[in-house]
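Our consortium's second objective concerns turning raw sequence data into structural hypotheses that experimental partners can test. To show how far this objective has progressed, the report includes one record in full. It was chosen at random from the queue rather than selected for favorable results. The single chain below, 537 residues long, was entered without modification.
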Amino acid sequence: MSYDCCWFNPERNPLECPNIDEGEEYLYASPRKRFVEKCIDCQWFQRDLASMPENNPFKNIILTLREEYKEQKGHLQSLSAFLSSKSREIKFLHELSLVLQTSMELDEVLSVAMTAITSGKGFGMNRAFLLMVDRERNSLVGHLGVGPKDYEEAWRIWDEVDRSNFSLTELSKDFYKSKLATEKVKFQDVLEQLTVSLDDTSHIFNRALRERRTIHVENAFDDQDIDRKLVDLLGVSRFLVMPLISRNRSIGILLADNFVTNKPISPRDLQSLQTFAFPVAFAIERASLYERLQEEVDKQTQANRKLQEQQALIVKMEQMAVVGRITASIAHSIRNPLAAIGGFARHLLKSGNPDEKREYLEHLVAAAKQLDDVLEEVFTYSESLHPVMDLWDLNQLAAMVSDAVRPKLAEMQLLLELDLAEGIPKAWLDYKQISYCLRAIILHVAASQQPGGVIRVASSSDGNTLRLCVLDSQNSLSAEDRSRLMTPFSETETLGEGGGLALCMIILERHGSLLTMEDIAGGGTKYCITLQEKGVI
């Protein structure tokens, strides 16, 4: 009887064996290893066994040993796969726990957890969603989704992961830095639909939280206990609902499935995920508490800063109040004799007795008027310490101030035009102080205009911001000029000139508003008072 297998036929050359592949050449020199690894399942060996006579006592022995060997080999392969899986799981959990224990930022913790669930180097689920308990809304709220949204994206992501050859930690860091924000946006519509009220006790999410156990759904399409909207939204028959519990506190729900591969979720996968759930829940709770603690610290820091600012403001206001009372007292003391001097000088001028002293009287009247303007600014400064706020029509204010200064502008051969926007809201302001500032700006612009010039006053509205601007189309200002104008009674100016704009800046700052000077395209300067409508102050 002839045999085909080299085990029974010594003349058969092992090089003719069809089962030995490239890289397994070491089997040629070891018949024992060749028999164990290749001959048991070799078609030649099986054919030779079948052709042996039934009365051959070795046939049954060999068949029995072969079946036993195959059974033991399968068992060993299963144990090897199990040990390999457990070894990978232990390494993975150790790597994961290091990140979870050291990270205090919620988004970083979530990046690690969700990458671990969906990465092939972790648990290898295709897709995962995190829902977190919102106690204020009394709901489970969709917070983050990770994974592909369709089949095409799935293959592209898996190809990128294979080519990157990143470890799990590197994958999670890459996800945290470059993909977290886009993943939140990508699944926003799904996350909104996953949100569930905690009062819906029949919902599978709430059942998992209440019973504190992972629910493995095998056939969602035929399960009457599962909400149809959830099944249609996920579009899969198999998925896991895993509660996240930390120190008897419900943190949220992890929802995972294999919507691309439709791979069954094995009991081993389920057990591994359950082992993983506790450290994730603890890390999420800790990061959330730390995040809230940081928010409270920031609030307290801001409150302390505001308190210090208020204390400094109170001290400053007390000091300014003293200055205001002193200046007001001095101004009152000066105004009465000044009024007498000016009055007598004007009376003498009107008496109709021109003589050589008339020129001196005119200088006296002018000086008295100049001093009176200075006193008016001093009184305005004193009153600006305590503004009286109310709602006013900004256009009406601009029109009334313009009417008041037109006679003086006419003497200077200047025109005043109004460009007032319609429908602007009322402003929250001190009418007297803003009127003074607008008048001071108009007169300042008029002082530098050539006869025949035009001054334009315009109002505008942009959201909560209201602007009242005076446009000087003839004169542009250098940085030095602007600084000089904002310095009260600077050395380069005569007494009573230029103090108005600086005083306006002080008034508007206390008023919660601004005075700005802007260049006009083509030449010129725009002086703007920026106010806020009611509700912003």
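The partners drew two points from this record. The first strand starts at residue 127 and ends at 134. The longest helix spans residues 267-350. Both points have been shared with the crystallography group to help prioritize constructs.
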